[in-house]
Amino acid sequence: MHTPITSVAPLGPRGRVAVLAAAFLGLLFDGVELGLMPVASLSVSESLLGAAYTKTLGGEWFAWFTAALMLGAAIGGVALGTLGDRIGRSRAMGVSILFYSVCAALGSLVTTQEQMLVLRFLVGLGVGGMWPNGIALVAESWPTASKATVSGVMAAGLNTGILLLAQMGRIWPITPDSWRWLFRIAGLPALLGVVVLVALPESPQWLAARSRRLSGETATPRKPLSTLFSPSLIGITLAAILVSGIPMVGAWSASKWMVPWADKVGGGTHAAYKAITQGWWAAGSVLGSFVGAQLVGWLGRRRSYLVISAGAAAATFAMFTLTAPLEPSFLPTVFVQGFVSTLFFGWLAVYLPELFPVDVRATGAGLAYNAGRFLTAVGVLASGWLFAALGGDYARVGSILSLVYALGLVAIWLAPDRPSSD
Questions:
Q1: What is each CA distance from 345 to 156, 288, 387, in whole angstroms?
Q2: Cβ distance 210 to 387 under 8 Å?
Q3: How far apart are CA 8 and CA 6, in angstroms?
């Protein structure tokens, strides 16, 4: 007969470092997947569409690829977040890494746009599952560490991946004749996924909660989604979805148009210009995602979100109206926009895990973070239709949709200003 353990020792220093390193790398490669199509999409479309390709059609396909990724991430964040609450954070994280890396590698074999569209959806499933499980695992393995520092490091990991990808694209330009290599490289994190599955320590808090259930000390909980929408948590859950959704919709419906815009204007004379643009944005975003976590401690949860919302709306509007690709002010403005708009994600890395009890923490964080991606998928498709209606005018699309960020000035008043306790 199995005798459950009712107490679990915290991880030692080596175990905590291993968890932090694995989660950071998982999010870094998550960032590679997120940054892949903004720099590769037009080249992929031109290669696969052949004579049928036009710049406007390329922009429309960029919207479709992005929407497919966001829809997959939304589903994966909920499904694999729930899996993390059931089988453990580290195992669910390993599954997520394997999913996004293997499906990304298959992208190197596609022969049609439709095949790539399906694979971007499948990549999104793993991308969505990585964030909630990685954040929950680190938060529970480092309970006495500075939340702002650890969360900032984790949030920076995502954008470090985008920066790494941009540097590769700068050294080896991504063109219609040479893009498949990028998808092969995106499959290499599968090795990390295997290591995480077989060797990474599990969250002590999750193990302790499971042991209490097995020993009968606590009742077997309802399904995580039922718990999140119970009377005691539904208000928190909906508010968390709202404050997570606004920066997500803003990032993918507005901000990301800067890269194909740069490719359209500068790509004819400088094949690496789109990668350089993404590199400037990613450099700002690495700093922004780290500083965003610190802002929670400096200004408080609500006040910091208000400041970030106003700043992101202003910086994004300025990027699309006050400068343009190849102008001297464009790349510095892109850097500033990357810094300001990604302050949100450092803020979320601190805020979301502390809202939910440990039994539903990965599901709650995953649902909140990724439910916004359902809205993002719709928003990106709408931006694609707007792009076509405006005759392929990147600047007008970006400037109009930059106002999405301003919705945060209202939304944050519906969210709790203090964390909940387990």
A1: 9, 8, 27
A2: no
A3: 7
- For residues 130 and 135, what is the distance between their CA atoms, to the nearest angstrom? 8
Ordered structural domains, the chain, with CATH: 13-414 (1.20.1250.20)
172-221 tens-digit pLDDT: 888 888 899 999 999 999 999 999 999 998 888 888 877 777 666 655 55
Q: Is the dihedral of CA 87, 96, 340, 381 positive or negative?
A: negative
Q: Contact at 8 Å (CB) between 207 and 87?
A: no
Query: How is residue 103 written in tokens?
Result: 């499906």
Q: Which residue has the higher pLDDT, 13 or 21?
A: 21
CA distances from 350 to 132, 146, 253, 324 (A): 12, 10, 24, 34
* Residue 287: partners with Cβ closer than 8 Å, 6 or more residues away: 156, 339
CA distances (Å), origin 332, targets 5, 290, 337, 338? 55, 19, 9, 10
Beta strands (DSSP E) in 201-271 are none
The 10 Å Cβ neighbour count of residue 408 is: 23
Phi first, then psi: give them for residue 142, nearest 5 degrees.
Answer: -120, 60
For 385, residues 6+ apart whose C-beta sits below 8 A from its C-beta are none
Q: How high is the pLDDT of residue 115?
A: 95
Tokens of 348: 């979320």
Tokens 């960032």 found at: 31
